Amino acid sequence: xxxxxxxxxxxxxxxxxxxxxxxxxxxxxxxxxxxxxxxxxxxxxxxxxxxxxxxxxxxxxxxxxxxxxxxxxxxxxxxxxxxxxxxxxxxxxxxxxxxxxxxxxxxxxxxxxxxxxxxxxxxxxxxxxxxxxxxxxxxxxxxxxxxxxxxxxxxxxxxxxxxxxxxxxxxxxxxxxxxxxxxxxxxxxxxxxxxxxxxxxxxxxxxxxxxxxxxxxxxxxxxxxxxxxxxxxxxxxxxxxxxxxxxxxxxxxxxxxxxxxxxxxxxxxxxxxxxxxxxxxxxxxxxxxxxxxxxxxxxxxxxxxxxxxxxxxxxxxxxxxxxxxxxxxxxxxxxxxxxxxxxxxxxxxxxxxxxxxxxxxxxxxxxxxxxxxxxxxxxxxxxxxxxxxxxxxxxxxxxxxxxxxxxxxxxxxxxxxxxxxxxxxxxxxxxxxxxxxxxxxxxxxxxxxxxxxxxxxxx
Length: 459
Prior knowledge:
This protein is mostly helical.
């Protein structure tokens, strides 16, 4: 109201100024002056209020929000699905196919410029542009000064490697193909995948991965659960139940999964790859071995035998307090989160998982009391094994020296991540074997050095 009154007052003021000027300069009749006054007042007041010609500008703003169809709007949902499918098909046709990629390689090889750098064929910017003109419309996006500069290193002639450029193109094409493939499983069409969407994607991907040929179909559901869990553990830290497709493409997990297309993948690479058949069978086999009563779930007592069997009871209590359980027992999906956290203790997502268990009062930091509470269980285990207990004061000082927190009395999750010592600190507090390894690190390093020296002497 006040704002409108202010606009009206301004309109009247300007009109009064105009009116006085008019009276002194014009010989119009009283009726004409009043009519003109009313017309001008209406014009100025309408403009200040936001009407008149200004209204037409809002009509030119394009529509930018379209609501999603409701569940009962079946026809609109079908229309949206079909339009998305057509859009993705069009995007797929815009990508280079195998024949076009071969033609691109042929053109690049034909325009290489000597001398070669080692085994690398090179190309100048002029030749690069010529290839771009001949390669076709689909390749136009790759033949830019920006791309050339990105691949330009220390060549004395200002050239780039043909192989590096071709690999760059291949990578871009692969990313777009994969994005389109993942988008086909995006039921909501909002740029993210739910757990069931990603499960369907991986299930249909299995037959295309030669390294998984030996898997029995009865194990498929467990394999899919094992694979999907890694994506969600690391890419969905807030546990929203969905992951952005962009995040899936940005991480290395999809590369690891598609690495299984290599029929000659080494045994070492398979063991290091979470998505390989040996790795999935290892994790599931451990779960079955821990399940002594064969009820398909793990009690706290059964989980206590995990790994070297040296996790403290206090830590396991916290696991069963914080994690999802069913009548006090853990299912396979919850077990996978547990394994991923303990096997990747250097990763922020794993540290977040462990930190939540250590932060008993949910304060957002660990103080001396919390450290003492967990380390006391380590001291008790040491006594049980006949080892001399270590002073908590010494361990506490070492932990704070390692982490160097911003607040000298509190350790936050960010402090642990920034220090790069989060894995060591968590091992000291939850695992007797981890503490023993830390406490005897100098002896272990010395023994390792002696064994290496012996190997050298023997040769």
